[in-house]
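Milestone 3.1: sequence recovery, worked example.
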């Protein structure tokens, strides 16, 4: 059994969801307007892709074996996209914003992988 099994993806998805809720709450209760906007956007996408990680686990459960690749893209997208927005909101240099689109691309690849995996489920 490898390290990237369904249980580990689900654990990381749950941690990612936790962080998204915590950041969203911080944005709602204590950040200046521009920082709050960046934090909310990062939290929204982070939470959405935490749920996509759980969807991938469900796909794996019903026999779509290729879905095991999607969580890596979803969660790396959370780190790159959401993480870069969080960092910018907290005062990181603006050049860090160049990383954000790479995270967005990772999200897109994850969704494409999940669509590909769905083709492996019996009709």
């Amino acid at each position: 059994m490898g390290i990237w099994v369904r249980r580990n993806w689900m654990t990381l998805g749950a941690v990612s969801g936790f962080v998204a809720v915590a950041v969203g709450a911080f944005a709602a209760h204590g950040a200046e307007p521009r920082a709050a906007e960046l934090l909310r956007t990062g939290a929204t996408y982070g939470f959405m892709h935490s749920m996509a990680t759980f969807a991938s686990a469900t796909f794996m459960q019903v026999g779509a074996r290729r879905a095991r690749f999607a969580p890596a893209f979803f969660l790396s997208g959370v780190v790159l996209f959401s993480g870069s927005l969080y960092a910018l909101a907290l005062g990181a240099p603006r050049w860090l914003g160049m990383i954000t689109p790479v995270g967005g691309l990772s999200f897109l690849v994850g969704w494409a992988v999940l669509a590909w995996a769905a083709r492996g489920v019996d009709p």
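The chain is about 75% helix and 0% strand. The mean pLDDT is 93.
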